[in-house]
Input
Amino acid sequence: MQLPSDPQKTSAYDSVVADEPQGFKCDLCDKYFKKREYLKDHLNIHAGRKRYHCLYCGEAFLHRASLARHKGKCHLMPV
Output
């Protein structure tokens, strides 16, 4: 980590934050996401958790959109 050369930056932390892209970072693979919810879904991929469950058949999905597509195709529900 480089020490800040700008007198306006008061700590090394300020320097690091200024150089990183904005968003929420996955600590496991260093990907960034615009929303915390997207990061939560992404972390479930690393953990193998499927948090969206179909109330009709019990099948589980990683993403809410996948569950909606499933309901539309398999249970003839509007998406």
Remarks:
- The chain is about 40% helix and 10% strand.
- The CA atoms of residues 2 and 10 lie 13 Å apart.
- The radius of gyration is 20 Å.
